[in-house]
Design a protein that fits this description.
The structure holds 2 protein chains of 2 kinds.
Chain A: H1 3-15, H2 17-20, H3 23-35, H4 37-54, H5 63-99, H6 106-124, H7 148-165, H8 171-197, H9 202-224
Chain B: H1 11-39, E1 41-48, E2 55-69, E3 75-82, E4 87-93, E5 99-105, E6 109-115, E7 120-133, E8 139-145, E9 148-153, E10 157-164, E11 167-171, E12 178-183, E13 188-193, E14 198-204, E15 209-210, E16 217-221, E17 225-230, E18 235-241, E19 246-251
Classes of the chains: A mainly alpha, B mainly beta.
């Protein structure tokens, strides 16, 4: 499975693995994610956005407002009902689509918007271009610690060295390593998200630093082992 | 006239079944033992070392590493066992006397090593467990997936770190000592003398902290982070876990 196909299906995959996509496709995505750190990072980003969207406060409008909106919609539907049926027959699926009423919850809208933004960013970065084979989302995140760019560069160098050796490992060892990395990355993204809200928070800074150290330690260990 | 029919010997078939089952059990045990002894590989090496500069490094892929101090004053004795034959154990000693044990391959190897009590040890195991006991030298223990247990230490420098496992330490706290215990997803336990002098930095993102009744002077205290000192605060103790909990215990 190619990176762009995985990215196109990731949102469905995260929504509920075998509700929106087939079991086969889910397996292909999982296999790809195990071997592709960039898509893995993309998945983490998307997941983080979904989590953040879920945590947004729900605003309940006053009952009177709903009543007014509902009355207005009913009135419009009643007025357009006849011509609409005719238009639907005339313009096929587009007419049918226009006649449907879609309702989305706030998290769904936020998730959809997040996917749209991510796809635009990806498109701008040229990931779908003919000369680019890998995803690069590192520019999306801004540094929250003074030394963060340096830390990331070091981690990327180590990760590349480890990735070059991963072919020698058995599948189980590879999967376990990916799991460890994913868990650390998820925590790191969570802590970075919190630090982003309050960049001067010394405790969150310490947490983020500790997680970078953890990630570096894991990579160092793997570098020390001769498989 | 009723002909008396002799009662069948009820015990007979049960006796036979018992005998059969016993024979089956014995043959199974013998076969298992033979198979086990045929596949288990053992490895044993002894190295002469200078007690004051004794140094050991172990790099293991999977299995356990158990290091105990105080066996022989001038020897490192390495015993290893693997249950399949897929790993290779290399044991070397460099010109400075440092002993290095390195496992290559995918199999699990269990080590039992005795060292002079003052030895410095550096232990790495990707998947398994590390146990260190009765040492006075510097200890560095690192496991990616497994527990670390350190007991009876009288060491000035300890670093124990597991990504997915628990870390526990029990020992003396020397005035100039530095003790770092970390786990990403496991629990961190430190058992310290009640009168120990130390400066504590403890951070737990999710799991909470139990300071074990140590009466400390707090510089900073939140539900995620504690910076405090006990007694004269001379040694440095750093405890960290992202997802687990932290527990201090007072040794009577």
């Amino acid at each position: 499975m190619e990176c762009h196909a995985v990215i196109n299906s990731l949102s469905d995959y995260l929504d509920g693995q075998n509700v929106w996509i087939s079991d086969d496709e889910a397996k292909q995505i999982e296999t790809h994610l195990t071997n592709c750190p960039t898509c893995q990072n993309f998945k983490l980003e998307l997941n983080e956005i979904k989590i953040a969207a879920r945590e947004l406060p729900l605003h309940t409008p006053p009952r009177a407002m709903w009543t007014r909106i509902a009355n207005q919609i009913e009135a419009e539907i009643a007025a357009e009902n006849g011509p609409l049926r005719h238009a639907q027959n005339a313009s096929g699926w587009w007419g049918w689509l226009r006649s449907r009423r879609f309702t989305f919850s706030l998290p769904q809208l936020a998730g959809g918007a997040a996917v749209a933004v991510a796809l635009i960013v990806a498109a701008i970065s040229g990931i779908f271009g003919p000369h680019s084979g890998t995803l690069n989302l590192s520019g999306v995140q801004t540094a929250l610690l003074p030394e963060e760019d340096e830390i990331k560069a070091d981690l990327e160098r180590r990760l590349n060295a480890v990735n070059a050796r991963k072919a020698q490992w058995d599948a189980q060892r590879r999967a376990e390593f990916e799991q460890h990395m994913t868990r650390i990355d998820e925590s790191l993204k969570r802590c970075r998200y919190m630090l982003g809200d309050n960049p001067k928070d010394a405790i969150q800074q310490q947490m983020v630093r500790a997680l970078y150290t953890e990630k570096r330690q894991l990579l160092e260990d793997v570098e020390r082992l001769r498989w | 006239m009723v002909k008396e029919i002799p009662a069948p010997n009820a015990a007979l078939p049960f006796k036979s079944i018992r005998k059969f089952l016993s024979a089956l059990a014995i043959s199974f045990a013998v076969t298992t033992a033979m198979t086990h002894s045929a596949s288990a590989q053992t490895f044993s090496r002894t190295f002469a070392v200078a007690p004051e500069t004794s140094e050991l490094e172990v790099v293991n892929q999977a299995g356990t590493i158990k290091v105990t101090g105080g066996g022989h004053a001038a020897r490192i004795v390495v015993n290893a066992r693997q249950n399949d034959n897929t790993a290779k154990v290399d044991a070397t000693q460099n010109a400075q006397g440092k002993v290095k044990i390195e496992v290559t391959g995918q199999g699990a190897v269990d080590f039992e090593i005795t060292v002079p009590a003052s030895s410095n040890v550096d232990l790495l195991c990707y998947k398994g467990a590390i146990t260190v006991a009765n040492l006075g030298g510097a200890v560095r223990a690192r496991v990616t997936d497994g527990n670390i247990q350190i007991t009876g230490l009288r060491s000035a420098r300890v670093e124990a770190h597991s990504t997915k496992g628990n870390v526990s330490f029990s020992g003396e706290v020397l005035p100039s000592g530095s003790y770092t215990l970390k786990s990403f997803s496991g629990r961190v336990d430190a058992t310290l003398p009640a009168n120990a002098d130390f400066r504590l930095s403890a951070a737990s993102f999710r799991g909470g902290m139990d300071l074990g009744g140590f009466q400390m002077k707090f510089d900073r205290q939140t539900h995620q982070l504690v910076e405090a000192s006990h007694g004269a605060g001379r040694a440095s103790i750093s405890l960290w876990t992202q997802e687990g909990s932290i527990h201090l215990h007072r040794k009577p």
